[in-house]
């Protein structure tokens, strides 16, 4: 059996069994040891130290949704990585951003992308956005054992719903419970500050460009008050990852675009360190 | 239970081969050809839902003639094989050569096993390279052999005649419209040398286009884009770009 995916023997029966369009279902039948959820951790004392990703923010605007994340990963009080990527395309019309244990999260995203692509190839049609969001729930739930030992993964899922013709955001808890968020959402250790900023800045008539500026402002405020969230690093040219999803599909802003946005925000913060002022009433 | 009489292995194999060939000959033919920017799949298929062509992986496409449920099974097996391999190693480690090998082993085992009936299918596995020199096309007949093809290949009922027609006229570096028109011309020839018209809505067309910015190079060509390509008069026009936004 093993040799068949690595060697070039006959396809085993599992491959030719009609039925499921899910890659994860196929894996659990054929090679369950490859599924992340099937692992058990030996009992350990205390918390396992592994790099953690922090703040992800998302905001909707008429015609789409923006999903962005900072670039810092921390391990305790050490900055483990300055330029980690935490926002990924899930498929042509959705993206996922992850806070939590970086290594497990990246693996989860890889499997999630594959799950969506596999379904699309087998069925000849994309899953609905709700369907995609539910698959992600299942994957987080399978990581519950790890989460209980401090290795949680908490994603934010954003996509363009082709049926309803608007951008939508889903947030998750460690048990895989999902809830749809309206207007904006954030996850990770800096999310409280980011959410506060977005609450004051959000309007429902934002343009795409304004929405991307808004997420940079929110991430700046998160980095301002949360030591695990990294602000724009001008010296090293490390800027947040900003992605936009519209009916045209997924697009990640180029480094040039992200740099211009971040520098514009930074320039204003040199004059107004606390950012834009909202009206009192 | 009567006593089975003796059948020589040669005869048994010849019978099985004939059975498979007859089954494949009942299926409509299709053509797979190289053109300047990639590989194009063209076939007559009245159904909008049951495809003869499909994406297997980033640069790999699949085409099949013969019995639908059997090749659909092999197609899904191929998608599972490719996705599992890419997940285990890396996306770059999934190749048409590896997939063609697995298909050949599978078809060969089924063909020579007395317990199963031979599959009535003929497959084509194609991979688009960075340049035309890197393109690969493998034809997999029912018995588990592999034929490495170049330029153009046809499988299905009338395939020998169509292959000959294509071989005589196919050139390297054709535009998509030229290649498509040549394929349609080849497919619309009868066994007795006559011609019939295949309307655009009865054609299934897909490409592996190396110029696509996405990592997945497979794309179906449908609707307006297909009509424009069929109407193009061989000159390079706007409609030639396989990355037409119109779906």
If you had to describe this structure to a student in words, what would you say it looks like?
The complex is a heterodimer of chains A (281) and B (247). By secondary structure, chain A is α+β, with helices and mostly antiparallel strands. Chain A has helices spanning 3-6, 13-16, 23-30, 102-123, 129-141, 144-148, 191-201, 208-225, 255-271; strands at 52-53, 56-61, 64-69, 73-75, 78-81, 87-91, 94-101, 153-161, 166-172, 178-181, 184-187, 241-246, 249-252. In chain A, strands 1, 4, 5, 6, 7, 8, 9 and 10 form an 8-stranded antiparallel β-sheet that branches. Helix content of chain B is 36%, strand content 22%. The model of chain B is unreliable at 235-240 (pLDDT under 50). Chain B has a single domain (9-230), classed as Aminohydrolase, N-terminal nucleophile (Ntn) domain (Glutamine Phosphoribosylpyrophosphate, subunit 1, domain 1), CATH 3.60.20.10. The longest helix of chain B has 21 residues, at 68-88. Chain B has 247 residues and is α+β, with helices and mostly antiparallel strands. Chain B contains 6 helices and 10 strands; from the N terminus they run H-E-E-E-E-H-H-E-E-E-E-H-H-E-E-H. Chain A binds chain B through residues 4-6, 8-11, 15-16, 18, 23, 26-27, 30-31, 34, 110-111, 114, 117-118, 121-122, 124, and chain B through 49, 51, 54-56, 72-74, 76-77, 79-81, 83-88, 98, 101-103, 105-106, 109, 216.
């Amino acid at each position: 059996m093993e040799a068949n995916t690595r060697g070039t023997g006959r396809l085993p029966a599992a491959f030719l069994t009609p039925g499921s369009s899910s890659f994860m279902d196929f894996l659990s039948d054929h090679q369950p040891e490859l599924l992340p959820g099937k692992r058990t951790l030996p009992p350990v004392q205390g918390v396992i130290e592994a790099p953690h990703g922090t703040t992800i923010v998302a905001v909707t605007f008429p015609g789409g949704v923006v999903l962005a994340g900072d670039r810092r990963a921390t391990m305790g009080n050490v900055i483990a990585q300055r330029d980690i990527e935490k926002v990924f395309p899930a498929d042509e019309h959705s993206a996922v951003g992850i806070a939590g244990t970086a290594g497990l999260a990246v693996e989860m995203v890889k499997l999630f992308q594959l799950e969506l692509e596999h379904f699309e190839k087998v069925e000849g049609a994309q899953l609905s956005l709700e369907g995609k969001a539910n698959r992600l729930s299942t994957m987080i739930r399978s990581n519950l054992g790890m989460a209980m030992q401090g290795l949680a993964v908490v994603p934010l899922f954003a996509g363009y719903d082709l049926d309803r013709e608007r951008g939508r955001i889903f947030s998750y808890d460690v048990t895989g419970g999902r809830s749809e968020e309206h207007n904006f959402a954030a996850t990770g250790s800096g999310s409280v500050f980011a959410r506060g900023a977005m609450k004051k800045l959000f309007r429902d008539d934002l343009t795409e460009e304004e929405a991307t500026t808004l997420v940079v402002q929110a991430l700046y405020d998160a980095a301002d008050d949360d030591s695990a969230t990294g602000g724009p690093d001008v010296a090293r040219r490390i800027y947040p990852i900003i992605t936009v999803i519209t009916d045209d599909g997924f697009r990640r802003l180029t480094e040039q675009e992200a740099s211009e946005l971040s520098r514009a925000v930074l320039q204003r913060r040199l004059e107004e360190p606390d950012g834009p002022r909202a009206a009192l009433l | 239970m009567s006593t089975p009489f003796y059948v020589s292995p040669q005869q048994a194999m010849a019978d099985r081969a004939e059975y498979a060939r007859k089954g494949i000959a009942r299926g409509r033919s299709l053509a797979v050809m190289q053109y300047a920017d990639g590989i194009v799949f063209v076939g007559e298929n009245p159904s909008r839902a049951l495809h003869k062509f499909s994406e297997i992986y980033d640069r790999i496409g699949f085409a099949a003639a013969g019995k639908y449920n059997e090749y659909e099974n092999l197609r899904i097996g191929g998608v599972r094989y490719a996705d599992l391999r890419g997940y285990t190693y890396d996306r770059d480690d999934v190749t048409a050569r590896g997939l063609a090998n697995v298909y050949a082993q599978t078809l060969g085992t089924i063909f020579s096993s007395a317990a199963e009936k031979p599959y009535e299918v003929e497959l084509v596995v194609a991979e688009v390279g960075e340049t035309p020199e890197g393109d690969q096309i493998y034809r997999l007949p029912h018995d588990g052999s592999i034929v490495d093809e170049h330029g153009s290949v046809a499988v299905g009922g009338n395939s020998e005649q169509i292959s000959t027609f294509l071989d005589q006229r196919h050139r390297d570096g054709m535009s998509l419209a030229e290649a498509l028109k040549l394929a349609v011309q080849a497919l619309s020839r009868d066994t007795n040398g006559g011609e019939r018209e295949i309307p655009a809505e009865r054609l299934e067309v897909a490409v592996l286009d190396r110029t696509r910015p996405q990592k997945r190079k497979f794309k179906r060509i449908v609707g307006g884009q297909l009509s424009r390509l069929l109407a193009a008069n061989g000159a390079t026009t706007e409609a030639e770009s396989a990355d037409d936004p119109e779906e």
